[in-house]
Amino acid sequence: MSTKSFLHNIPVFAPLPDTIKVKLEEIILTKAVTKGEVLFRETESAESLYFINEGKVKLTKSSADGKEIVLNIRQKDEIFAEVALFSPEETTYPATATVLEGGSVSYIRNEDLEMMLLEHPELGMPIFRIMAERLRISQTTLRDVALYGKLSALAATLVRLTEDYGIKKEDGIYIDIKLTHEDLGNFFGATRESVTRMMNQLKKQKILSKQQGYLVIHDLEELKTYMHDA
């Protein structure tokens, strides 16, 4: 796939004039990645903005006791590591990025992109919108855990996963990424045992099931009622 073709697929870059896309092509680097590969760690100097051409990438942080917390999973045509833009040179990545599904990623060094933003401010608005939306989601997750409990946070996580990775079929919405109960708990700081109990509760009410390793949401509207009722 050429640089120009995948730029058209990425929401941040798609609306831009071809003249700007041509300039972006000159500063974009691309590489193949394999499952399990670490693209960067949260303690490393933040140097680049990344976006995914093929595959999936997991973003995680380590808690004080060493527990992994999943911040999000990014997929094809999404950007990540954008928060380091216009930050001081000593800024580190806010998370560790690990490849969940092999493919390829492209990246632009922050210093090159910042120069582009100064020359073409219209490039900045879509990036800032994404940053604002992701901040809102993070704050909502913290609110759900603090105010409504972990069942509400689990429900909100599942709803968000259906929005990001859901595939509609006759019997429900398939979440197109395999997640263990431990993986789900890592999104909002719950133990595997706690998630298992909550998932069993939702399964008994026929809200969801698991088929061939994939979660299937059968009653999305009922699941949403748990988001603030727990």
TrEMBL record:
PROSITE patterns: CNMP_BINDING_3 (PS50042), HTH_CRP_2 (PS51063)
Domain Cyclic nucleotide-binding: 12-134
Molecular function per GO: DNA binding; DNA-binding transcription factor activity
Any single Gene Ontology cellular-component annotation: cytosol
Keywords: Activator, DNA-binding, Transcription, Transcription regulation
Organism domain of life: Bacteria
InterPro entries linked: cNMP-bd_dom, cNMP-bd_dom_sf, Env_Response_Regulators, HTH_CRP, RmlC-like_jellyroll, WH-like_DNA-bd_sf, WH_DNA-bd_sf
Record Pfam families: cNMP_binding, HTH_Crp_2
Segments forming domain HTH crp-type: 148-221
Keyword hit for Coiled coil: no
Protein name as catalogued: CRP/FNR family transcriptional regulator, anaerobic regulatory protein
Organism of derivation: Salipaludibacillus aurantiacus
